[in-house]
Amino acid sequence: MFASKLRFLPLLLVCVSTFLTAQQPAPAPAPDKIPTLKITSREVVLDVLVLDKKGHSIQGLKAGDFQVVEDGAPQVVRAVSEHRALTPEEVARLAPDPLAPNEFTNYAPAGNTNSVSVILIDALDSPTTAQMYLRQQLIAFMKSMPPGNTFAIFQMDRRMHLVQGFTSDPQVLLKAVEGKRDEISLPANLNSATREAMMHVGLKMMGQYLAGFSGRKNLIWFTGSVPHEVFSLTGNPFPDSVDFDNMRARFANALSLSRVAVYPVDDRGLEVFREHEYSHAVLDEIAERTGGRSFHDTNGLKEALAQITETGSNYYTLAFSPTNPVWLAHKRHLTITVAGREHATLLYRHVYFARSGRKAYWKKHAQDNIAELKPPPPPADIVQTAGDGLDAALELGSMISGELPFRLSAMPAPRPLKLAKDAPWPKDNYLEPSLRTKPFREFELLYTVDPHNVGFTQTEDGVSHAQLEFLVAVYDAQGAMVNSLKTTRVSEIGDANYRRMLESGTKLTLRQTIAVPEKGNYFLRLVVHNPDADQTGSLEIPVDNIQRGVAGPGQQLISSSQLP
């Protein structure tokens, strides 16, 4: 994939209508052995690790074993779900259905749906010698990694890079850490404010990627220090989510505290002179805020990885209904203990905000103090950008986001087109002017989105509202954008129809047609965005991967003889 400075052609097509729908079977249920947590009223849901004196997980606890205190007031634990690493048989049962020809998706389920681990190599604040030693430790760990554990590897320098997506294959992970990773690129005159802004943007991109994976995410962050402001309560790049139970009652919802637990690991190792007391205190605080644990003053980076891997897959999910009925973004403090286990160590979120709305509501009531880095302005001949923070999502080579999962069916036209020099240009075709006299081929794109994954908002009269933006950009092999298109669809659905849609397995669909030059190597970058709920899904497809003469799901193949 190609990194580039993003150039946008005008995204001019905007139309408002109801969604096209297609009847499709509902997804297969998860295996019976996978524990689920049922929410019956407004509740707070959070993950808790319980460790014994030796740092091993304590299993078999029930709801009555946990004692939760919020701001000094005892709470009643309504439900507890115990999680553990999945067996190979369970992983196989959770495998997604295979894709049809010319069908693509941004949904890439991890093998272990209960817990996955993310290794982040932070080059912004790690000495070169520390990075070299860390690489040796990672190689040693991957050579002896216990089977069944799922990892992804990221690297942060000028931007966030996905070095290796989620996999449980030790050989794939070993090649990723042994191979030559992306060359480290750091900006000149890197000060603390610039680093904080870069890290915040990079972690938000990572958060969008991780949102597509269920279960707990153990973020193992190898660094010298973590900017304190990046994980402030209002600036946390991994925000909490409000889950509405629309199938039972409009007012029933659960505040799910962020399932990304941060494990900061000081990759500078054991130091003779303790010059970093303050940075270690920040690492400890970040770990406590997110339900993780910090590691410093040790050269055993491989051992730290092994300990996090062992304990991070075995945890409990607790649900309780707070006795405080006021949900106006007030900060609340939690204390959780286990009866009869005075010496046990519990890892969990100690502070949260009691909020009642979705991300869009929260953004109106809490301003982010970290200024986001934005790409340089487009040249004068480029009319507009994608807007709404979608520049990074549309950038060729940027991380794929599974926060809003979707499937795409693509079908190329049976033959290319070449227009005469004085012929009128087709409507809604924004191909780069210099390419308009050359042959091009139209591709029909069919997006399919499961409404269960879409953050609908409800009005007082019971109408469910959703606005989805569908964007596609065409890039050449040098990373220059040569075509783009944006379509906005708005859906207003009454209560009865909304429930019927969810129960029947009906999908939300939309069609677009985009022109791609016939000669050369090109890439499609696709984004589905829900601005109301602040959800983003993205996908990248080499045009060469779209087979000619094959109709994707929901497409009808047209032969050349049928063309006018």
Task: Produce the secondary structure layout.
Elements: E1 20-23, E2 43-51, E3 66-70, E4 73-75, E5 77-83, H1 88-93, E6 103-105, E7 115-122, H2 128-143, E8 151-156, E9 160-167, H3 170-178, H4 192-210, E10 216-223, E11 241-244, E12 253-256, E13 260-266, H5 277-290, H6 301-312, E14 315-320, E15 330-338, E16 345-347, E17 351-354, H7 359-365, H8 391-394, E18 407-412, E19 440-449, E20 457-458, E21 464-476, E22 481-493, H9 495-504, E23 506-517, E24 522-530, E25 535-542
Parallel strand pairs: 2-12, 7-8, 7-10, 10-13
Antiparallel strand pairs: 1-23, 2-14, 2-16, 3-4, 3-15, 5-14, 6-18, 8-9, 11-12, 15-17, 18-19, 19-23, 20-21, 21-22, 21-24, 24-25
What is the first-to-last residue Cα distance?
38 Å
**In CATH, what is the class of the largest domain?**
Alpha Beta
Uncertain ranges: 1-41, 243-253, 358-388, 557-564
Strand content: 25-35%
What would the average pLDDT be, to the nearest integer? Answer: 76
Beta strand count:
25
Any idea what the CATH architecture of the largest domain is?
3-Layer(aba) Sandwich
Keywords: Signal
InterPro entries: VWFA-rel_acidobac-type, vWFA_dom_sf
Protein name: VWFA-related domain-containing protein
Signal peptide: 1-22
